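Exercise 7.
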Amino acid sequence: MKCSLSICLAFLAASAVAAPWDLPRSQTERLEVRDDTPVVDLGYEQHSSSINSTGNYYLFSNIPYAQQPIGDLRFREPILPAGTNSTVNSGSTSNIECMQAYPEWIIELQAAANGVDVATMAYLLYNSGAQTESCLVLDIYVPTDIYNAGLVAAAPVLVWIHGGGFAYGSKTGSGQVAGLLARSNNTAIIVSINYRLGMFGWLDGSDVTPNLGLYDQRLAFEWIEKYISKFGGSPKRVTALGESAGASSLMHHITAYGGGEAAPFDQAVIMSPAYQFNLNGSYGYDLTMEVATNYTGENIDTTDELRALSSAQLKYINQGVVYTALVGLFNYGPVVDGTYVPNHPQVLLLEGKFDHSVKLMISHTSNESVPFTSTNVTTSAQLREYVIGQFPGLDNETYNYMLDVVWPDVLDGTYPWTTEFARAVRIGTEIQFACSARYLSAAFKNATYDYIFAYPPGYHAQDVPFVFFNGDTTTLNNGLPVDPTIAHAIQDHIVTFTLTGDPNYIGQAVTWPQYGSAAQTLEYTYTGQVIVTDDLKNNRCAWIQGAMANGTM
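Solution. The predicted structure, written as tokens, is:
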């Protein structure tokens, strides 16, 4: 289903506007608000909690970590909350999420996965009352023993940064953290954050600060450093956990300012860092103004004019721009800005311009790009068309070299592809996801812990339900049940890394070595865990990074 811009916009208007499937917390967490649950004095507000008596943890939900980006603060860098206020804020147990938007191809994938038609799926995705511009909030899950111990607890903190192509997602949209807390024996605090999405966080133009979503995330880490001790956490023991867009965000924080400032965390678990190659920020800006002009009937061509529109208008404009994105793309996302992002993180890693002190656990899945690759790619000509669409702006000589030398049209099993579709998947997987894991390991002198999630089918984000597994074996992952043994192993590796800086734990199936010069990697398979040699230690990944550094790509 392809449509013109005007038809796409009409379709969006007809299907209303909002976001996905978060179950109310009352159904998933059994939270209680009682008179004896703690209230924390943050200065700018008093924030109360609810309790999960089964899991023995308090939840402080929807804590504002910034002045909300509304009115004149729209499209500006975030600011910490200010002032004093004795009013108690319960945060409520309802979810808050930033404005959501979905490309047509994501809606089609979701419709197919859920057995509904595209129009119904769009309506369900867009119609959630949880969406708001006042979304810069975070949740803190604190085991009762840690909170009651106070400052002396100095517990490690795990901070979740969600994925979603920088266009959709929320702090609770990937699942609940009760399983992770349980696997840690309630010895860690977990924080999950929202950050601005789509146009609201990633508009790029001469009259707006690019990459506002990265500034949101960094401010959340600054908030954690300032306030987490009030909850029993240590600001010196912070591990970031991110997947997809969240993972690539962590790469940007590690390379922020070209290594001129420290990353805002001590350790990171980087899962399938997603990268929109050659994202054209000016195209997104111009398209935003075009959609805004068409929708409002007014001439909108500056960020100030955009800022003056209503929240409902901006919501619609954001969705209209993202809806038209090509398969695998989202039209908004991080761009090189000369400041926070002085160059692509892959290049900064190669040049040694990053915070070398961070400890890393890194992963990718075995078939990352399958959901983002058109099944129409069955010939070499169609593959070339796919490559040009996914990686625009290159010259013919580069396209020829990519398809003749780097990923040649050889389908006899010499290379890890035997069809044109598999070849396209490999190209997308290596450029947009997996090779970034290799670059991180190499930059950190191979002193990282790497894993491959190869549990079938191994698509992008397939490991997220395993990370947030809470014991429900009926939870499906593209039709496959989540394997509790593998889920618990992944959770144990993450929480042990959070606690100690080393993912190895007593009783594990295999000893997990550092990546090392032999590129040793832990692989989660259908039958268990095994140590393998990373297949990303190849000339293709090396060529991509070199081409990015010398400007060929």
